[in-house]
Every structure is written in structure tokens, then in C-alpha cells.
Design a protein that fits this description.
mainly alpha
Length: about 100
């Protein structure tokens, strides 16, 4: 369902700010739900030791990306220092233009 919602907005040639904002809000809610499910499992006694090193690193990165995107959404900003651009290559920073 989340992918369908994303595709609807992404395929539009000229999506409006309100549409993009609603789509971002929906994606943030989905990520929050998933992270809270993981946190709930941990509180019930599940451990993260079953995760591989790569999976654990990805979980930490997704948490940080969520935090950054939520801050951008709430503060109506478009940039943040040390922003993670890619989950596959988190060490790469965006090129500064201007």
C-alpha cells in the first residue's frame, strides 16, 4: 500500500506541495509504525543479537534517516547538516550547490 501511494505522487509530472507533503507524512507514519513494532518486540524480550551486522547497521541508519526526515517535515525545511542521502552508502554526502 505504501508503495502504491508513493508511485501515485512520483509519477505526476507536476505534483503540488500539498500532495508531496501528504505523501511524506504517510511515509513517515509507516516508518514510525514499523520502528515502534520493533521497539515493542524488544520490550517483550526479543534481542537484536539474531540480526546480522549488516541488518543491525541498516536498522540504525533507518532510525537516523527517520529522525532527520521527521525534523525536516516538522520544521518545513529542505536541508539538514550531515544528512544521510543513501542507505547503501551512508558515508556519501550531497554535493553543495551555490
Amino acid at each position: 500500500m505504501a508503495r502504491k501511494d508513493y508511485i501515485v505522487v512520483a509519477k505526476k509530472s507536476r505534483s503540488r506541495h500539498k500532495q508531496r507533503s501528504k505523501a511524506i507524512k504517510r511515509q513517515l507514519q509507516d516508518i514510525k509504525r514499523n520502528l515502534s513494532h520493533i521497539q515493542g518486540l524488544i520490550s517483550l524480550g526479543a534481542t537484536l543479537s539474531a540480526l546480522t551486522k549488516k541488518q543491525y547497521k541498516m536498522l540504525l541508519m533507518v532510525t537516523e534517516v527517520y529522525r532527520q526526515k521527521l525534523w525536516l517535515y516538522e520544521n518545513k525545511k529542505q536541508s539538514i547538516s550531515d544528512r544521510i542521502v543513501s542507505l547503501k552508502q551512508p558515508h556519501i554526502r550531497p554535493i553543495l550547490r551555490r
